[in-house]
């Protein structure tokens, strides 16, 4: 049986108690809202993106459980300063770690590779291996690996990915994704 | 007569289940109740020994199946004090029953500007169907507010009812446990020229119910919260009301005659039961009703008042100001539904921690988001009881709450 120690790791509780990038940004920052209709969690994201596609600032608001809020905090820290493309890639890696593959988010093959890599890393039981599986060193999972234990609590996966899906929605509002041709 | 909770527990096979060597502490009957052997066996018997479709076919087992279904209808009618058995309309669940009512009665009777009165403590099933009709007809929805103690604020009732065509109020809140003064509201509604609908989904499974005494014109409720199976709900309405309502779903069983030119509707209750019904589930609900009748609903209520008093007292004694139980404090004014706030632990996290001790509670908005907004919360953790719960279950809940402190560092 999965113990709560797998879920409520110290670093998660730290992000929950001391959320990073908490607050609001003024327009022209993009605002996106995400809801988890099952449990009532909500996340409000504010994202500033420069002309050359770099996330220059990000802020999170809303309320929810420790998993949704800590994931939002970690996500904000992880994507700040990254390009939109890098953030999308990180999102796919994170969702793959959560056992979710969404082919529509990115190139199908890359996505499948990310999932396979994350699954291999998971079965190896080594959080570091997930970081190693990243194609680019600067997209390592870092603190995010602490959320790996959520996979053992399937009901909570939606909590963990809420802020990431909201980030993708913010990108849609700001930078319409280029149509991808099916491979 | 006090209930023998241990003997009752033994009737429910799910409650014998252990997880990780520890017993199940099932405190989510507000969401759905567990099933006694009598219900499971009645459905099993139908499938094994009397399986045929109903309302057609002259052969023996078809007649037996029809009898089983109609006996269940009679049992349900008796259980809620319905004057006529044909006033019981079986649906898929309470939500479908409400949609049937709103789509049929509402579309036949409500025009632009007409007023529907509901309350701030309604389940989405008594909100969204009206909003859907509003989108189409531009009707007005008025909300009876709630007080700080989670009771209806009826101080402006006459004003709210002015011009109303229908009033639809839950008999018992699924979040606060509040028992509402349905008779008083129904009388006021009638005086204002409106009809009165009540949502009995939380009430009927736990308290003696008499629709005539309640003074209502219609009521919805569901089988699976009253020890019956999923897949069966009920709309009850007075014969006069139901006969004046147009059909909702069209198809088999609901017609008397069909020609290329048109159709005529069947009589009650078949007019509203198009297609093959959930026969096994209806039979199961009949068995649930008989099981509850054998115990006696007065005894069920007495047991739950006593358990509610114990729960309120225990939680207060052990956690003092660290815990908030929403809704009325007086056990006689409420049902056994406890929406809890514990320190600053999020309900979702709380429910996860309780699960470690096999304590099953619901975390979320309980399909009552407008109420959550009024309460100023996003979610609550809700424990709720039925006849098979006892004081040991409440103690297990309290023990498990204490263990949250270890994780959340108080």
Strand content bin of chain A: 5-15%
Gyration radius of chain B, rounded: 22 Å
Side-by-side strand order of the widest sheet of chain A:
1-2-3
Helix content of chain B: 25-40%
Instruction: Tell me the major beta sheet of chain B.
Output: 7 strands, mixed
Give the overall silhouette of chain A: globular
User: Could you say which structural class the secondary elements and strand pairing of chain B correspond to?
Assistant: alpha/beta
Q: If you consult CATH, what is the topology of chain A?
A: Sufe protein. Chain: A
Q: Quote the distance from N terminus to C terminus of chain B.
A: 42 Å
What's the main sheet of chain A like?
Answer: 3 strands, antiparallel
Secondary-structure element string of chain A: HHEEEHHHHH
Mean pLDDT of chain A: 80
CATH domain class of chain A: Alpha Beta
Largest interface: A-B, 19 and 18 residues
- With helices defined by DSSP (H or I, 4 residues minimum), what is the helix count of chain B? 14
Strand content of chain B: 15-25%
Count of folded domains of chain A: 1
What structural category do the secondary elements of chain A indicate? alpha+beta
Specify the helix fraction band of chain A.
40-55%
Beta-strand segment tally of chain A: 3
